Amino acid sequence: MKVVIQRVSQSEVVVDHKSVGKIGKGFMLLIGIDETDEKQDAEWLAQKILNLRVFGDDEGKLNLSILDIKGEILCISQFTLIADYKKGNRPSFIKAAKPDQAVPLFEYFKKEIAKSGIKTESGIFGADMKVSLINDGPVTIVMDSKTKQ
């Protein structure tokens, strides 16, 4: 699994002109699921993200996690993160998990995040989504569960 983490002051996802997920201060996550990903990938990433210390403390140092600040998380499925762009100019998405595998894993990831008590919102898997955000910092980090080995 690959996740792009953006620290935001607010973020929203709209489908068919209707807001389906909206948060204040916290993380907007773009989540790509590879055909080789399993529940352990989702668990590992959820714990890393929940404990990621990228929010400022009283001295302005990045010492606080989303749990510490009682932030919120917006999860957006994004199969294009699994793009293979090595050959030619048209990316291939053949390694992205198919919906029958990706949807349950995406839902499992969201549950792992929500177990922490953090307000967790999401877009609609496979929908044409319009995502807006105000990146705070900016702070953007990319995590890949394949790097845990």
Structure, described:
The protein is of the alpha/beta class. It contains 3 helices and 8 strands. It has helices at residues 39-51, 66-69, 99-114; strands spanning 2-15, 18-23, 26-32, 55-56, 62-64, 72-77, 119-122, 129-144. Strands 1, 2, 3, 6, 7 and 8 form a 6-stranded mixed beta sheet that branches. The protein has a two-stranded antiparallel ribbon with strand order 4-5. Helix 3 links the parallel strand 6 (72-77) and strand 7 (119-122). Helix 1 packs parallel to helix 3.
Which descriptors would you attach to this protein?
8 strands, 3 helices, single chain, six-stranded mixed β-sheet, alpha/beta, 149 residues, globular
Radius of gyration, rounded?
15 Å
Roughly what fraction of the amino acids lie in strands?
35-45%
Indicate the mean pLDDT: 96
- The shape, in one word, is globular
| Topology, number of strands | 8
Taken in chain order, the helices and strands follow as: EEEHEEHEHEE
Low-confidence stretches: none
Content-based structural category: alpha/beta
Q: Biggest sheet, open or closed, and with what strands and sense?
A: 6 strands, mixed
Multimeric status of the protein: single chain
Distinct helical segment count: 3
What is the helix fraction of residues, given as a range? 10-25%
End-to-end span in angstroms?
13 Å
